[in-house]
Design a protein that fits this description.
This is SET domain-containing protein. One of its GO terms (cellular component) is nucleus. InterPro entries: SET_dom (IPR001214), SET_dom_sf (IPR046341), SETD3_SETD6_MTase (IPR050600). The chain has helices spanning 18-24, 72-80, 83-91, 99-113, 127-131, 146-150, 156-179, 183-188, 199-212, 276-283, 309-315, 337-342, 378-383, 388-412, 424-456, and strands at residues 28-29, 32-36, 45-49, 53-54, 62-64, 214-216, 220-222, 240-244, 250-254, 259-260, 295-299, 321-326, 331-334, 349-355, 361-367, 370-372. The chain is α+β, with helices and mostly antiparallel strands. It folds into two domains: 15-260, set domain protein methyltransferase, domain 1 (Alpha-Beta Complex); 295-456. Helix 7 (156-179) packs parallel to helix 10 (276-283).
Length: 473
């Protein structure tokens, strides 16, 4: 049974103490400060210009020593000097050898080191033991209440959160099972009566990592103190870039041609191509200037009456859905899974049990008698067939029907009731996401209708005498 709560060592330090901590640990600042933006104190801390700054003038805005960068390599280096940390990572097997697994466990371990409820000395404190105390608790959707989650019905975020919570629970149980035989873990983390670690703690370190991890060139996914304090803006509004210098340090520099006035915010991009759903999911906000959902992943199911349904689900190597995206003047879609949905045995698909060299039976997919190593290759094989237009028509018709269902569900949630327990931020974000996704879906429905019409009537003029691209929708 999972107890609800918080690890008592999660002691917060005021942001006013951040710069002294950073400078003491070798971080250099050039004309910037960390703190709340004047007039926007409710948004938390960010990077602000202390004076007018111009690209190409002076050193980098921030230089973060390589040993302060929280990466997979950095965690492994720390483990060489900390036997308890090494014991933790070794117990986790492959999960402890991934950037995500190593960093999340490292964060949890650092919180334990400074926990006042752990009487004995634990681990080897390092600068990052104090760093996590400056990080705010993020109100990501994984921390929304059930009532707030209900606001997301019909959006792609609802299924993403459900999948994430299930994934987090599996990870939490994996970590607990793997470390249960370590004496200090059993005593301080997992004891039935006095253990301090809860599922909430695992969600918290996930939120820290998910909302602040940056993909640094030459380093990979990591957390970089100071740089990860920068807020997001996209396009021309992005003020600065982050990269690794020749000494392996993390640096923040202004973009070419950029000038920042005193007391203005210095922003980075978290990814200009990320859609509204992913922005809320990972960072807990939508950019004010965002006028499109940009991209959506919509789930697909194989019909229950498909005789090969169960077998298809076993052999599929594709994500069960399709990616819908905004191309500016129109929408587009991508999916490897749809081709598995829309073909059957009479088309040439076969699924058989084959015996491996060790005598075991393994289910394999076949296309016209030849083994299909990866179902992602199916589209390329279908394109070579004389019935390619027929397969396309089936696929597009299925996608259009799925889009229509998503639209109908969203319309049912256009004016949900707001209960007293629903907080302001989840209410606003859910409403904005519904608007953006509904607009993209309605555009996509019309574009898919055009594709269906073109595939049915491939000649320039269809049976009604209208050009498919000019007919009124």
């Amino acid at each position: 049974m999972i107890r609800r709560g918080r690890l008592q060592g999660w002691l917060r330090r005021p942001i006013s103490e951040f710069r002294p901590w950073a400078e003491f640990n070798g971080v250099s600042f050039n004309g910037i400060k960390i703190g709340p933006l004047p007039g926007f104190e409710d948004r938390g801390s960010t990077i602000i210009a202390e004076r007018e700054l111009a690209a190409g003038k002076g050193p980098s805005l921030v230089v973060v020593p390589t040993d302060l960068i929280l990466s997979l390599e950095g965690v492994n280096v720390s483990a060489k000097a900390d036997q308890q940390l090494k014991e933790l990572l070794d117990s986790l097997g492959q999960f402890g050898r991934t950037a995500r697994g190593a960093i999340l466990v490292f964060l949890l371990f650092q919180a334990s080191i400074s926990c006042p409820d752990i009487a004995e000395s634990m681990g080897v404190p390092c600068p990052l033991t104090e760093y996590i105390k400056f990080l705010p608790e993020e109100l990501l959707p994984t921390f929304w209440t059930e009532d707030e989650h209900e606001l997301l019905l019909g959006t792609t975020l609802k299924s993403a959160i459900n999948a994430k919570l299930n994934s987090l629970l599996r990870e939490f149980e994996e970590v607990r099972t793997a470390t249960a035989d370590i004496e200090w873990c059993r005593k301080y983390w997992w004891d039935e009566d006095d253990g301090l670690i809860t599922f909430d703690d695992w969600m918290q370190v996930d939120a820290m990592y998910r909302s602040r991890a940056l993909e640094f060139p030459g380093i990979g996914d990591c957390m970089v103190p100071c740089v990860d304090m920068a807020n997001h803006s996209s396009g021309d509004a992005t003020a600065a870039l982050y990269e690794k210098d020749e000494d392996g340090n993390g640096v923040l520099i202004l973009r070419d041609g950029k000038t920042i006035k005193k007391d203005e915010e210095i922003t980075i991009t978290y990814g200009d191509e990320k859609g509204a759903c992913e922005m809320i999911f990972s960072y807990g906000f939508i950019e004010d200037s965002m006028d499109s959902a940009r991209v959506m992943f919509i789930d697909l199911t194989i019909p229950d009456d498909d005789p090969l349904r169960a077998a298809k689900l076993v052999v599929s190597t594709a994500a069960p859905g399709f990616r819908l995206f905004d191309k500016g003047d129109r929408t587009g879609w991508e999916s490897d899974f749809i081709w598995l949905v829309c073909i059957n045995e009479e088309d040439g698909l076969g699924i058989n049990f084959l015996q491996t060299i060790d005598g075991k039976l393994e289910m394999k997919s076949l296309w016209k008698g030849e083994e299909l190593a990866d179902t992602a290759d199916l589209r390329g094989l279908l394109q070579k067939e004389a019935l390619w237009d027929v397969y396309q028509l089936r696929a597009v018709a299925i996608l259009q029907g799925r889009v229509e269902t998503q639209i109908q569900t969203l319309y049912e949630m256009v004016d949900p009731e707001r209960g007293d327990a629903i907080r302001d931020m989840p209410w606003k974000l859910a409403g904005r996401l519904r608007e953006l996704e509904l607009a993209l879906l309605e555009r996509a429905y019309g574009d898919l209708e055009d594709q269906v019409r073109h595939l049915r009537y491939p000649n320039p003029r269809d049976t009604c005498g209208c050009h498919p691209q000019t007919r009124q929708r």
